[in-house]
Write a structure and sequence with these properties.
InterPro entries: Cys-tRNA-ligase (IPR015803), Cys-tRNA-synt_Ia_DALR (IPR015273), Cys-tRNA/MSH_ligase (IPR024909), CysS_C (IPR056411), Rossmann-like_a/b/a_fold (IPR014729), tRNA-synt_1_cat_dom (IPR032678), tRNAsynth_Ia_anticodon-bd (IPR009080). The protein has 17 helices and 15 strands. It is an alpha/beta fold. It binds adenosine-5'-triphosphate (ATP) and zinc ion. The site of adenosine-5'-triphosphate (ATP) has 19 residues, from helix 1 and strand 9. Zinc ion (ZN) binds next to helix 7.
């Protein structure tokens, strides 16, 4: 069996991955808070953990892997957005606006992430459907002395859990000094965080022994992962921005509620997608959405390919140049594998790269090697492991709109040019080169073969005349 090695943030090193139960590999990834279109930063964990999911399914069998990713559909940011909509004239009750907003956002999220070729997780729990489990967990924590109720709030008593800070490697006192912790009259200690808070009549709320209220964000993931995966599971993922406080708080809650369980064995964090050295985020306003890129004509597969070019543990940025190169490569590979029966399994070299802490850039280098060696069946099977070259994947036909026919003709003419060169028919090869230039097709010869793109003055009639 393939040995997978993963960097465990908790251990701060690369470890051999050994599932607790190899017939039931379990992974939980923190999903989006649903009030807005996903920006391209939010797509990074989706793609990273989709590749891991595909690798786990390949190694352990598709029926032996359970992937859970939640939707946070109760949150102050959602309430604030709904309040803005109401202030802007929406006449529905706030709760109805919230329901419509979260439903619509989940629909967008599915459409956008599907377009990136991400498989849907096995379970996608909505927090609002698991409130009972959250209340039960909070009651349990109070019973065990790890939480306390005050003024309609329930707080987690951070100093009651001695392991607090281990994941992020900081002491509680450092954290207090460094973080902007909210001091509130109902807190015993500034580090304590909210498990439950009161809701006004018009906000979403659920009845509890502490009054009508709603859960805090951190308890959602602890309760849902416990319900769907158990007290111990294999992998917990999310962006590095969630390591503290969100994941630290999840660990504290889950370890205190279920001291016999181990919660997550391996913690994996993707680094940030950045814009000029800063995390892309809604609060900084330096974001654009996956939908923006799709609407600009970038096929989802091209976006995916760009992400795979950088290791998940390194920061990355999005550039048009990367997109251009990705598109040229994929266009060429799509031409190579069209109508080809894939090999029965992916190439060992590609599996080995992915098994080495998801070395996606290395896996792509291996795909180039397969393409270069003419192993198109191997290329197709191996690309599938990365979620690439799927013939049902959309985007390509629309990418250049009416120019889809042109794409086929250009590829045909490039093949003709290569043949002419091989046959030393330089007159024909040169005529094609000049013809491309005149028609507005920019051709670039690279070690991997010819790449092309259309200039703004592209003239389909001139291209047609080159036949
Ligand atoms: N710039 C980014 N690069 C990579 N991952 C990101 C980035 N921003 C958010 N994420 C990840 O996206 C996932 C969904 O997070 P969530 O919906 O809470 O977004 P968010 O953190 O609220 O976004 P923002 O910071 O823009 O408000 C999380 O796993 C988070 O770590
Ligand atoms: Zn979470």
């Amino acid at each position: 069996m393939t040995t997978i090695r993963l960097t465990n943030t908790k251990a701060r090193r690369k470890e051999v991955f050994e599932p607790i139960d190899p017939t039931k590999v379990r992974m939980y990834v923190c999903g989006p808070t649903v009030y807005d279109r996903a920006h391209i930063g939010n797509a990074r964990p989706v793609i990273v953990f989709d590749v891991l999911y595909r690798l786990l399914r390949h190694v352990y069998g598709a029926d032996h892997v359970t992937y859970v990713r939640n939707f946070t559909d109760v949150d102050d940011k959602i309430n604030a957005r709904a309040a803005e909509m109401k202030a802007a004239g929406d006449t529905r009750p706030l709760e109805a606006i919230i329901r419509a907003l979260t439903d619509e956002t989940i629909g967008w999220y599915h459409a956008d992430m599907d377009a990136l070729g991400a498989l849907r997780p096995d379970r996608e729990p909505r927090a609002t459907e698991w409130i009972g489990a959250m209340i039960a967990m909070i009651e349990d924590l109070i019973g065990k002395g790890h939480a306390y109720a005050k003024e309609g709030h329930v707080l987690f008593r951070v100093r009651s859990y001695e392991g607090y800070g281990q994941l992020s490697g900081r002491s509680v006192d450092d954290m207090i000094a460094g973080a902007r912790v909210e001091v509130a009259p109902f807190k015993e200690d500034p580090m304590d965080f909210v498990l439950w808070k009161p809701s006004s009549d018009e906000l979403p709320g659920w009845d509890s022994t502490w009054g009508r209220g709603r859960p805090g964000w951190h308890i959602e993931c602890s309760a849902m992962s416990r319900e769907l995966l158990g007290e111990s599971f294999d992998i917990h993922g999310g962006g590095i921005d969630l390591q503290f406080p969100h994941h630290e708080n999840e660990i504290a809650q889950s370890m205190c509620a279920h001291p016999k369980g181990g919660f997550a064995k391996v913690w994996m964090h993707n680094e940030m997608l950045q814009v000029e050295g800063k995390k892309m985020s809604k609060s900084l306003g330096n974001f654009f959405t996956v939908r923006d890129l799709l609407d600009q004509g970038h096929p989802g597969e091209v976006i995916r390919f760009v992400y795979l070019g950088t290791h998940y543990a390194k920061p990355m940025d999005w550039t048009e140049e990367k997109a251009r190169q990705a598109e040229a490569t994929l266009r060429k590979w799509r031409g190579l594998v069209a109508g080809i029966e894939p090999a029965p399994s992916p190439a060992p070299s590609v599996i080995a790269a992915l098994a080495d802490d998801l070395n996606t850039a290395g896996a792509i280098a291996e795909l180039h090697a397969l393409a270069g060696a003419g192993d198109t069946a191997g290329l197709k099977a191996s690309a599938a492991l990365l979620g690439l070259l799927d013939e049902t994947m959309g985007g390509w036909a629309e990418v250049r709109g009416a120019n889809a026919d042109a794409a086929a003709l250009i590829d045909e003419l490039l093949a003709a040019r290569a043949n002419a060169r091989k046959a030393k028919d330089f007159a024909r090869a040169d005529a094609l080169r000049d013809g491309f230039a005149a028609a507005g097709v920019i051709v670039k010869d690279t070690p991997q073969g010819a790449e092309w793109e259309l200039a703004p003055d592209f003239d389909p009639a001139k291209l047609e005349a080159l036949r």
